[in-house]
UniProtKB/TrEMBL annotation:
Xref: NCBIfam families: PRK07559.1
Enzyme class: hydrolase
Lineage summary: Bacteria, Pseudomonadati, Pseudomonadota, Alphaproteobacteria, Hyphomicrobiales
Domain of life: Bacteria
EC number: 3.5.4.13
Domain annotation 2'-deoxycytidine 5'-triphosphate deaminase C-terminal: ranges: 173-364
Protein name per UniProt: 2'-deoxycytidine 5'-triphosphate deaminase
Key words of the record: Hydrolase
Family annotation (Pfam families): DCD_C, DCD_N
Organism: Aurantimonas aggregata
Keyword Iron: no
UniProt key word Hydrolase: yes
Length: 365
């Protein structure tokens, strides 16, 4: 089978030109990323009783007719409340070529706001996966977990990647790439399970001394966050700082939301894209990183990076869980790009999280 690869920016643009991607409004100028496309909310939202998948031969619209509690407009903006589940039809619809399939993920800023999003399609048996040749509308399920959020038509919470063939690197190829390109700063990289391991940093900046900052925990009962406003909110109104403990551990409280950082810096060479595996039951009953796409150029020197740490959105399930400094919490898998993108993640795109350390979403100052 041909290697194939992740479609780069110019091939995503070509999908618009051929009608494989269509929308009723013109494309935003910055909507196409080096290896993905931002998806925009449409004009109408539905509050639903519970999450659902349509299943074979069923449409999302048909399920909404059964499970919707009420519908409302997003044209002037609307607040989505925590603890509720919403479904919104996206502006973009697809008519994919027979050899192109896709996967979706929350955008980085979406994950850092603890907004749980999943893309679904007509006939889907699973979220966030679109089969080759899919033709039809796209919808997104939205569930704010920590902060109520203000969204509107055109807000971009999710992103989609298109691929052909089997571009995933095998472990032997990943080891060879790490040997030549230093994919993480770890002195002895742990490559297994199809990816390269990342561990948690609970020691913080040595310059911070015994009180070094290691993360943030989301506050409850806060004000509303407008997802389209940059630098509009005071950090202290929404987040509780977490400082290094004497023993170098952190007890995750069930259903609380944490922003932490990897101990290693990460590097994605221009000819590759990476994705964080969101959950590994072998490392504990918690979920790490809702927003898993790492674009070509992330942490790359040619794109203004010197290695960038992965910021991790962490939530424990059911029981308290103790994280310790240096504990493995997830893995990065790498895939070949089908071709080099015209622009890399970084300086050319004014990317929000290049050369980052521990960093909240772009909404906070």
């Amino acid at each position: 089978m041909m290697q194939g690869g992740i479609l780069p920016d110019r091939e995503i643009a070509a999908l618009f030109e051929t009608g494989a991607i269509a929308a009723p409004l013109p494309r935003d100028g910055d909507q196409i990323q080096p290896a993905s496309l931002d998806l925009r909310l449409g004009a109408k939202a539905y509050r639903v009783r519970a999450s659902f998948l349509p299943g074979a031969g069923q449409t999302v619209a048909g399920k909404l007719a059964r499970f919707s509690l009420h519908e409302f407009s997003l044209t002037e903006g609307a607040v989505l409340e925590t603890g509720c589940v919403y479904v919104v039809e996206l502006l973009e619809a697809l008519k994919l070529p027979a050899d192109v399939r896709a996967t979706a993920n929350p955008k980085s800023s979406t994950g850092r706001l603890d907004i749980f999003t999943r893309v679904l399609t007509d006939g889907a048996h699973e979220f966030d996966k679109l089969p080759a040749g899919y033709e039809g509308p796209l919808y997104v399920e939205i569930s704010p977990r920590t902060f109520p959020v203000l969204v509107r038509q055109g807000s971009r919470l999710s992103q989609i990647r298109f691929r052909t063939g089997e571009p995933l690197l095998a472990e032997v190829d990943l080891a060879a790439l790490h040997a030549t390109d230093q994919l993480t700063s770890a002195p002895g990289a742990n490559i297994s399970g199809g990816g390269i391991a990342l561990s948690i940093d609970l020691s913080g900046d040595p310059a911070g001394g015994s009180d070094a900052l290691v993360g943030y925990r989301g506050k409850r009962h806060t004000g509303v966050v407008d997802v389209d406003k940059r630098g509009a909110y005071r950090l202290q109104d929404f987040w509780e700082p977490i400082h290094r403990s004497q023993g170098g551990e952190l007890i995750l409280d069930p259903d609380e939301f944490y922003i932490l950082a990897s101990k290693e810096s990460v590097h994605v060479p221009p000819a590759f894209a990476a994705e964080m595996t969101p959950y590994d039951p072998l490392v504990g009953e918690f979920r790490v990183h809702y927003a898993g796409f790492f674009d070509p150029g992330f942490g790359h020197s040619a794109a203004g990076g010197t290695g960038s740490r992965a910021v991790l959105e962490v939530r424990s399930h059911d029981v308290p869980f103790i994280l310790e400094d240096g504990q493995i919490v997830g893995r990065l898998v790498y895939e070949h790009m089908k071709a080099l993108p015209d622009r890399l993640y970084g300086l050319d795109l004014k990317s929000n999280y290049q050369a980052q350390g521990l960093k909240l979403s772009k909404h906070f100052v």
